[in-house]
Fold this protein.
Amino acid sequence: MEQPVTISYVDQGKTRRYTPDFLARYVAGKPPQLIEVKYAADLVAKQEEFVARFQAARQYAQAQGWEFSIWTEAEIKTPYLKNAKFLLRFRSSTLVVRSEYRQLLLEVLAQLGRATPAEVLLVAFENPERQAELLPVLWHLVSTHQLGCNLLEPLTMSSPLWSLHNQSLSRHG
């Protein structure tokens, strides 16, 4: 959630207001995180200016059962962000996903267990033009969490993929 709260605090006898950039809520196991985003150079140059507001944010977050974090470009400009931006275009409602292609890819990956995009496409079709038709569907399946991959590593045609459907079946059955 963008700019989720405004925190009042006292700094040098004056009441001030501070609005952190984000509140991240996680699916399971990790408490919400109140996040401020700053350039690393600004954190150094304006350190004294930030001390009171960041302390107020830590106290506020702790009272809510949250964590407070400061993120710089080092935490943001990662392979995960690049992968998320890449996959976002394949979640589009304008992308036409042929159901027979979707089913074919899911079946191939279920059969292979774990394979790269290049291997999946090769098993699905020998013809390179037909493989090219499948590629957007493959990335759509990844972007909609029907296929798994490690988003912390750059996505390539050699990245391992796996069926999430099979994993959930093995956990429950």
The chain has a mean pLDDT of 91.
